[in-house]
C-alpha cells in the first residue's frame, strides 16, 4: 500500500478540501504563516463614509478589503467596481449588491489592463492592505489614472520553523511565502503549489523547486491541482 502523500497548507482551509484530498491518499496538515486584521483609522473611516454616497470607481484585490469596507458603507452604495476573481469578486457580489462589477481578472496585471482600456476611468479608489504590491497602482498612474489608496487591513507575518519534510506545500499569498522562508527551509524534492502567478513570482526569490500554479486563483482548484499532480506518482 502506498504511503500517504504529505502536504502542508500555509493557511487554514476548509475541512471539505482536506477530506477530498484524503480520499486520494493525500494528507494535508495546516499551519498559518500570516494573520490579517482590519485596520481602519478614523480618518479613513470618515473618507469611506464620504465615498459611500458618491458614484466612484473602486478596486478590490482581496476579500479582506471587501469585508472591511463592507462594514462601513451604506447598503445602497452604487459604485463601479473592478475586482480580482473568483473569490474576491464573489465577496463583492455578496456585499455590494447595488454596485456594478465593471471588470474582473485573475491577476493584478490583467485587471490593470482592463481599467486602462476603460477610457471613462480617470480616477479610482484602491482599497487595499498594508502589504499590497506596487504593480497595479503604478501601472494605472503611468497611464494617467489618479489612484487614491486607502489601507483597510494589515497583514501580519507569523513565521514558524517547519522541520518536517513534505511532499508538497501550498502557498496562497506573497506575504505567506516571505513569512514561511524566514524560519523554514525545504528540500529540493518538495513540490510547491501556488494560488496564482503573483505568489509563484515571489517563490522564485526563495526556491527553484518545481512549482505548480493553479489555473484559477481558487482554493478548490488548487487542491485539484495537488490531487492531479500526485495521482500518478507512487510514493515510497
Automatic annotation (TrEMBL):
<dbReference type="InterPro" id="IPR003754">
    <property type="entry name" value="4pyrrol_synth_uPrphyn_synth"/>
</dbReference>
<protein>
    <submittedName>
        <fullName>Uroporphyrinogen-III synthase</fullName>
    </submittedName>
</protein>
<dbReference type="GO" id="GO:0005829">
    <property type="term" value="C:cytosol"/>
</dbReference>
<dbReference type="InterPro" id="IPR039793">
    <property type="entry name" value="UROS/Hem4"/>
</dbReference>
<dbReference type="InterPro" id="IPR036108">
    <property type="entry name" value="4pyrrol_syn_uPrphyn_synt_sf"/>
</dbReference>
<dbReference type="GO" id="GO:0006780">
    <property type="term" value="P:uroporphyrinogen III biosynthetic process"/>
</dbReference>
<dbReference type="Pfam" id="PF02602">
    <property type="entry name" value="HEM4"/>
</dbReference>
<dbReference type="GO" id="GO:0004852">
    <property type="term" value="F:uroporphyrinogen-III synthase activity"/>
</dbReference>
<feature type="domain" description="Tetrapyrrole biosynthesis uroporphyrinogen III synthase">
    <location>
        <begin position="32"/>
        <end position="223"/>
    </location>
</feature>
Amino acid at each position: 500500500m502506498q504511503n500517504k502523500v504529505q502536504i502542508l497548507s500555509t493557511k487554514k482551509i476548509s475541512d471539505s478540501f482536506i477530506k477530498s484530498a484524503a480520499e486520494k491518499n493525500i494528507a494535508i496538515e495546516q499551519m498559518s504563516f500570516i494573520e490579517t486584521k482590519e485596520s481602519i483609522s478614523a480618518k479613513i473611516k470618515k473618507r469611506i463614509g464620504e465615498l459611500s454616497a458618491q458614484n466612484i470607481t473602486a478596486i478590490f484585490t482581496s476579500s479582506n478589503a471587501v469585508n472591511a469596507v463592507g462594514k462601513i458603507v451604506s447598503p445602497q452604495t452604487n459604485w463601479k467596481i473592478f475586482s480580482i476573481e473568483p473569490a474576491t469578486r464573489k465577496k463583492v457580489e455578496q456585499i455590494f449588491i447595488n454596485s456594478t462589477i465593471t471588470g474582473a481578472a485573475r491577476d493584478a496585471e490583467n485587471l490593470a489592463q482592463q481599467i486602462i482600456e476603460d477610457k471613462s476611468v480617470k480616477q479610482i479608489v484602491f482599497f487595499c492592505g498594508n502589504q499590497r504590491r506596487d504593480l497595479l497602482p503604478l501601472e494605472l498612474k503611468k497611464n494617467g489614472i489618479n489612484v487614491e489608496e486607502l489601507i483597510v487591513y494589515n497583514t501580519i507575518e507569523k513565521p514558524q520553523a517547519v522541520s518536517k519534510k513534505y511532499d508538497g506545500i501550498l502557498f496562497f499569498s506573497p506575504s505567506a511565502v516571505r513569512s514561511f522562508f524566514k524560519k523554514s527551509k525545504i528540500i529540493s524534492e518538495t513540490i510547491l503549489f501556488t494560488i496564482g502567478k503573483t505568489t509563484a513570482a515571489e517563490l522564485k526569490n526563495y526556491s527553484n523547486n518545481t512549482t505548480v500554479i493553479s489555473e484559477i486563483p481558487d482554493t478548490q482548484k488548487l487542491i485539484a491541482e495537488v490531487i492531479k499532480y500526485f495521482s500518478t506518482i507512487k510514493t515510497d
